[in-house]
Amino acid sequence: MAESDVRVMQKHVNVEELLRFRDGSADASETIAVGRHLAGCDRCAAMAREMFLDEMPATFAAEERRLRPPFWVYAIAAAIVLAAIGAAVLVSIARRNATQPAAPAIARTGTAAPAERYDRAEWNALVRDALATGAVAVAAPAAAVSSDVLRGPAAGIDGAMTPSATAVESPRPEFSWPAVPDAKFVVSVVAGDDVVARSGTLDRNRWTPEQPLTPGRTYAWQVRAIRGAGVETLPAPPRPNPRFRVIGDDEARDLAAARARYPNDHLLLGVLAAHHGLRDEARRELARYAAEHPSPAAARLAAGFANP
Amino acid sequence: MRDNPGMVTLDETARDPRALDAALEDLFRRAQPVIDAIVGYYGGRRMLDRSECEDVVSTVRMRLLLKLQRLARGETGAIATYEGYVARLTYNAVNDVFRGRHPERAVLKKRLREIALRDPRFAIETPGTVCRLNEQAGHAVVAAVQVHPLPDDVGDALEALLRAAAGPLLLNDVLAALYTGAEAPPAPGVDSETPLIRLQRREDLASLWNEILLLPQTQRIALLLNLRGSGSGGAIALLVLLGVTTFDALAAALAMTGEELAAIWSELPMDDLTIAERLGVTRQQVINLRQSARKRLGRRRGREE
């Protein structure tokens, strides 16, 4: 053990050392010294417990929420039931009208048909799993934003505020919000605790930031509507601010490669868009796929990303 | 102080005003290095500017005074770990500042200040940190109390809060009561939770940890290395800081030594690609492992409830 470790182990831990341990800025020798000291010193352990007590509910509530079946599980279950009913109707129509090509299409677009033809194993796996389960495995960055990103806007947010509860591809996305007569607007975009972009005073309810946002980051935004001496905030408190994520460079390359190689494969493009959190594109592509290849699996997939 | 040097009670001195003043002075002297250390930590990293540092210090001192006055009146229990309590007040006040940078909350704070300044019902004291009703001039600052429901109008809500508290309030406490958005902070500095609730929360967390230990190793690693909190930084450190587990037990749960865990501590939480490389699996498999872990935990905890 280095001399500095002995120093920390021999005396009590101070608040700076606890803060460095908490935020991960301590070096390895200090980390292990503080960690082990807490295990053997009642006084410092009590100090640490007291100091970070209020972080416990906020931090672990997020994990607790992940342990509960999210709303979309019920939505998919409902979609499966609806898809089954839809399939029964399709089969019934097909039987009545033998000249319709619907039955062969259903057979051809089963769970395995297009799943092994891509030159990337991950794409094959994603498409195969999507057809089998009716859901798309969400990439870690998209999932890390919040489970609401792919499943619809957060409750209470005005749907007319975009982007909301989605990833976006452009680092300079266009923001739009409901028009307010005779009002001027100021848009603020926040990442973590920092305001990273702010519009000037705008006359119309649309704005595109001049500087690109950072790929891979999650942002929240809001609008101040100024009318005469009054100022309103959109969304009005206590509604949560709309959130979105700009996809990372790796994700953008993944999508670009798929578009270049399989420009007309709406299933692959839709599944990849969903995987990376691009909700609107996923909805558009999967709806096209479902229209071109009517099948329970396609309907189930498209229903999962239909407009909330 | 008795057997626990960190424990503070004021019941013996409360009857003698001079002894009480001396005791309070002594307690403030003990608190100041802790406050300075935490404020200096964030100020030194340029995470707080000078005025924010001053705001934190004055807020903490005011909240501490409120707590100690309640202690002297026998309205609240003893402080078990005084320096820890002061550290918590300060840490929460710093986090309040970080949260306050959200535009929505900042707008509300500005409106609140304007109303407190201009509305004839109110007055502002102590360079902008305390507000009161006009008739509460000369009253001591008190702790906020909960009012449900609050009127929609900010001025009316402020009046309701001040009347319910029956004394002047810290503007930050009023803001915490008014701000009911997703980022609403815990009411800092006031004992909004009983020790029993806190104990229950810790027991819940300990129970969750025990369930995590029962997961298959790869699922456990995929879950823990990516464990995120509500704010920045990983949540894994809190397991040690809150006494849910020890550093070496945490390392063992991750199938590594304490030295190995210390070496990656600053990289936590890890992204899936890095975890995948450590486990020798694909990124998708890491995602699947974590989903399986959450499903399993969810089922077990569902059974508990």
Written account of the structure:
The complex is a heterodimer of chains A (308) and B (305). Chain A is flat. Chain A has 3 domains: 65 residues, no CATH class; 120 residues, no CATH class; 94 residues, Immunoglobulins (Immunoglobulin-like). In chain A, strand 6 and strand 7 form a beta hairpin. Chain A contains 13 helices and 8 strands. The N and C termini of chain A lie far apart (58 Å). The N terminus of chain A is likely disordered. In chain A, helix 6 runs antiparallel to helix 13, helix 8 crosses helix 11 and helix 12 runs antiparallel to helix 13. By secondary structure, chain A is of the alpha+beta class. In chain A, the strands form 2 sheets. In chain A, strands 1, 3, 4, 6, 7 and 8 form a 6-stranded mixed β-sheet that branches. In chain A, strands 2-5 form a two-stranded antiparallel sheet. Chain B is mainly α and 305 residues long. Chain B has 3 domains: 84 residues, no CATH class; 76 residues, no CATH class; 106 residues. Chain B contains 13 helices and 3 strands; from the N terminus they run H-H-H-H-E-E-H-E-H-H-H-H-H-H-H-H. A 3-stranded antiparallel β-sheet of chain B has the order 1-2-3. In chain B, strand 1 and strand 2 form a beta hairpin. In chain B, helix 1 runs antiparallel to helix 2 and helix 1 crosses helix 3. The interface between A and B is large, with 71 and 76 residues.
